[in-house]
Design goal:
Radius of gyration: 13 Å
Helix content: under 10%
Number of strands: 11
Strand content: over 45%
Number of helices: 0
């Protein structure tokens, strides 16, 4: 069965960095676009970033552009999100998700599999 397991979250000071990881299994990882989304306390789900299969293209929400970098290692079935210059507004539960062929990269409500999430808290 498809499994997505995030890790790497934690507490970091403003201006700090974190690298999130997502371990994928149960499907041919290299064939799928993958995405990161987040949900801040009391807010709705927000698309953060996505990467096409084989890393051919990456996309970012305006709120993270220039600070976050998405990448993938198809040999290891891993998805990553490098987050730099973090601000308190980045505090959220971060999810990785699989993007089915029928969905646009940023259409979070069309994603077919999600991980359980990893908490990122940015605070001094």
């Amino acid at each position: 069965q498809v499994q997505l397991v995030e890790s790497g979250g934690g507490l970091v000071q403003p201006g700090g960095s974190l690298r999130l990881s997502c371990a994928a299994s149960g499907f041919t990882f290299s064939h799928y676009a993958m995405s990161w989304a987040r949900q801040a306390p009391g807010k709705g789900l927000e698309w953060v970033s996505a990467i096409k299969s084989r890393g051919e293209r990456t996309s970012y929400a305006d709120s993270v552009k220039g600070r976050f970098t998405i990448s993938r290692d198809d040999a290891k079935n891993m998805l990553y999100l490098q987050m730099d210059n973090l601000t308190p507004e980045d505090t959220a539960l971060y999810y990785c998700a699989r993007v089915p062929d029928t969905a646009a990269l940023y259409s979070i409500y069309e994603y077919d599999y999600w991980g359980q999430g990893t908490q990122v808290t940015v605070s001094s």
